[in-house]
Specification:
The complex is a heterodimer. By secondary structure, chain A is mostly helical. Helix content of chain A is 81%, strand content 0%. Chain A is built from ten helices and no strands. Chain B has a single domain, classed as Rossmann fold (3-Layer(aba) Sandwich). Helix content of chain B is 31%, strand content 27%. Chain B has a six-stranded mixed beta sheet, with helices on both faces. Chain B has a four-stranded antiparallel beta sheet with strand order 2-1-4-5, with helices on one face. In chain B, a hairpin with a 2-residue loop joins strand 9 and strand 10. The chains are: A mainly alpha, B alpha/beta. At the A-B interface, helix 1, helix 5 and helix 10 of A face helix 2 of B.
Chain lengths: 275, 228
């Protein structure tokens, strides 16, 4: 096994506990939320029934309790937001924890008999695969919730929806599960690009310290400019691209930015990094 | 042979290394000596590309040193480079996983020699034991050259003696050792070659045996001449 794969396994192992906790927390919060939401719905149904309201009347007042509606509740959305924030935090922490405090593990990593970019790619793909893992687990959880709802709510007050329908119309679902394959690649490669730019900013700071913060700010500005240059171009020339053209331009700019970030990070890691 | 050619390093406007050139040979213990802050650690870090240099180059056996050659040369910093949460065994396993030059037999020998328990956590080790584990992780690699930064700093007398005995044992023989220190008191007799650094430059470079025979001076005598 080459050093990159070993490092990837090593990095993933370091994140394992936190990552599994995050998945567990997502399932717990969403599961508990589903329980509370459905109980609250049922108690309202009971109340209306006691008042003599017909099933049709109840449905017109409360609507159905279904998975699609549940995806719009805070119980469902909050753990997704928490996951995004946690992974963003970990994207920064994954570098700094090897440097700061009593930890000098960065010495060991930089002294490995391999290209230093192996460290960069191992950290990058640890985060990227973690994102994919979280999204996959969310997909599985949707199936669990779909199975659970008819067990809690009687048939007349719920409606059967396919997971595809929930993914198509649910809150945030379009970002987690892009509808078409090109859009899937576009969305996840954009995420990878953002991660690469973030890693480059961290390496600027780790290489030049205070001066590095200024350079990182400059690089962040340059990245924004490169990525949004198609939009800026349209704004100034008032030439409006077709959707497919805009999509293509953003894709090209994303690839340019990824290439640039790899080149700059490689330069910083091999020529400028300081421990 | 480690050949250091015209190393230069600036921190802001301060020239820490102005023009450092020297050689360290296989089978010899070469000692970089200088007062605190003279740039000894910077030289070792510069050799291992852990700090960017403003000029100069480093060659190992006639070839430029790249990270792929870290199977031939290793650096033992003055701090233990494993994660505090790891046990000694996990640290050894880590080295075994990543270095082809890891010698498990030698690692076990060193473990016995230093009387360290494998299952102990790094964070629970005393400073002396941390220094020993650090030494173990470097010495158990079958490398040609070892760089050591202040291997005796801040450790107790007994740990110091134990580490010192490594230098005269089979664990180091035939390898080239380049170490830094600001205090040569205990191991002057073990050192083959001395490179004295002052004001960012090499001020004296000599073999200790030769110095004793030709000028009748110890290393400490020469240090007094240079630094006082």
């Amino acid at each position: 096994m080459n050093i990159f794969l070993k490092l990837l396994a090593f990095e993933f192992n370091r994140f394992k506990k936190g990552y599994l906790s995050l998945i567990g927390l997502t399932f717990t919060i969403q599961g508990v939320g589903l329980f509370f939401q459905s109980r609250s719905y049922l108690s309202k149904v009971e109340m209306l029934k006691e008042e003599g309201v017909s099933t049709q009347g109840i449905l017109s007042q409360l609507g159905h309790f279904d998975l699609l509606n549940y995806t719009y509740s805070l119980w469902f959305v909050a753990p997704i937001m928490l996951g995004i924030v946690a992974l963003l935090f970990y994207s920064v922490f994954i570098w700094y924890r090897d440097w700061l405090g009593k930890n000098t593990f960065i010495y060991r990593l930089l002294l490995l008999p391999a290209k230093r970019m192996s460290i960069y790619f191992a950290k990058l793909f640890t985060i990227f695969l973690s994102v994919l893992g979280l999204v996959s687990s969310q997909y599985l959880f949707l199936h669990v919730y779909k199975w659970l709802i008819p067990l809690i709510i009687s048939e007349e007050f719920t409606q059967v929806q396919s997971i595809a329908q929930v993914i198509e119309q649910g809150a945030f679902m379009v970002f987690l599960f892009p509808k078409t394959l090109p859009f899937f690649f576009f969305a996840y490669l954009t995420g990878l690009m953002v991660l690469m730019v973030l890693f480059t900013l961290i390496l600027f700071e780790r290489s030049f310290h205070l001066k590095g913060i200024l350079l990182a700010t400059g690089y962040a500005g340059l990245s924004l400019f490169i990525y949004f240059s198609p939009a800026i171009y349209q704004l100034y020339t008032r030439i409006i691209f077709a959707n497919s053209e805009t999509f293509l331009w953003f894709s090209i700019m994303g690839i340019v930015l990824m290439g640039l970030s790899i080149l700059v990070s490689n330069f910083l890691l091999t020529k400028k990094i300081t421990v | 042979m480690i050949e250091v050619k015209q190393l230069k390093k600036k921190y802001g406007k301060r020239h820490v290394l102005k023009d450092i050139s020297f050689q360290a040979h296989k089978g010899e213990i070469t000692c970089l000596i200088g007062v605190n802050g003279v740039g000894k650690t910077t030289i070792l870090k510069g050799i291992m590309n852990l700090t960017p240099l403003n000029g100069g180059m480093v060659e190992i056996d006639g070839k430029p040193l790249t990270s792929e050659r870290y199977e031939d040369i290793t650096f033992i910093p003055d701090t233990l480079t494993m994660m505090p949460s790891m046990t000694v065994k996990q640290s050894m396993d880590f080295m075994k996983d990543y270095y082809r030059s890891w010698n498990p037999k030698r690692a076990e020998d060193l473990l016995t020699f230093f009387k360290i328990k494998k299952e102990e956590r790094i964070s629970d080790l005393s400073k002396g034991n941390k220094a020993k584990v650090n030494m173990l992780l470097g010495l158990a690699l079958d490398v040609d050259y070892l760089l050591m930064d202040e291997p005796f700093s801040g450790i107790d007398l007994f740990s110091r003696e134990q580490i010192l005995s490594v230098f005269s044992s089979h664990l180091v023989e035939d390898r080239g050792v380049l170490l830094t220190t600001h205090d040569l008191t205990d191991f002057e007799t073990l050192v083959d070659k001395v490179v004295l650094i002052d004001d960012g430059q090499v001020v004296r470079e000599f073999y200790t045996e030769e110095m004793r025979e030709t000028e009748g001076k110890s290393v400490v005598d020469v240090m007094r001449e240079v630094y006082q």
